[in-house]
């Protein structure tokens, strides 16, 4: 299980290799390698598990790991094995609990946008509805790490763009397969959502996750371009592939009430990129910590934790997937600021923080193995089911 070992001081110069660490580590597949090393941080020693991915190798690709539905969870090892990945890490923060809304089901759905195999899965929840540590100044729930169809990694921002065409005109679509919809909005749920209850989508407000659930809601089902049913309450259950559920709250609900069974409705949606003109083959939510070789301003430098981070260098051609160990000897972890400096020390120009704590996990599969091995120790003592992750694939 252990391959390379060394010590890296978090304050090391940009581009420096970890002192004493093997430069390549264990080869998992063409263009994919794994190693581990120790980090000396302010709170103590941390152990990092690192997978390096060469996207310039035509045999290598990355994609979203997820359990087939947005509102569902599985362990990283199960997701990786099911997809045939040679390596993987956990992904976005997610709707992990609903203690603030007793009786409301936690959906398990992730916070940010998601794209898998070039297909849009979901949009981002409002900033006040997210789970996870405070966002760095200037970042949002729409921030993503992604890989384009040109096989280059990027940091970007994906914003939902969509509409609902009705006999009375077009309504803006403000949600897609999200566990939280903006106040006064209309959101769409498709077969990709899964079977989880949609009640959570109308709880809280754009600024306060703990705010009460809305009592002013309305839901219509659209099949074949026409309204087939309506309800005053959000529903649950599997959504057929030919059906879209429109859910409105407050003003959005009042607008949906104007629709009648049989009315023609046209729903469109996409994710618009802020900077890239290249379509995304894969994208996942979280938040940036390193951009163009410099840590973002205002990064937390006081709270240490077990963390997962993805970065890239060589103009987006080489990926670094890093997960900290959660065993008792290393559980103090890193601050977000230390995480950014660590990635810069490994040569990354850009880096993106993913979910941490009990969610942090990195798995790899050796050439002769049929299943992946969990390389770090999850801090909770066992693998935590998560909604998504990043998978590394080899076509060797």
Observed structural traits:
6% helix; mainly beta; nine-stranded mixed beta sheet; disordered N terminus; 396 residues
Q: What features would you describe in this structure?
A:
The chain is built from three helices and 26 strands. Strands 1, 2, 3, 4, 19, 20, 21, 22 and 23 form a nine-stranded mixed β-sheet that branches. A five-stranded antiparallel β-sheet has the order 5-26-6-24-25. It is 6% helix and 37% strand. It has 396 residues and is mainly beta. The longest helix is centred in the C-terminal third of the chain and has 10 residues, at 336-345. It has helices spanning 76-83, 251-256, 336-345, and strands at residues 7-9, 26-29, 32-41, 44-54, 60-65, 87-90, 114-116, 119-122, 143-148, 153-166, 169-172, 175-176, 186-189, 217-223, 226-231, 243-249, 266-273, 280-285, 287-291, 294-295, 308-313, 318-324, 350-354, 362-364, 373-374, 389-394.
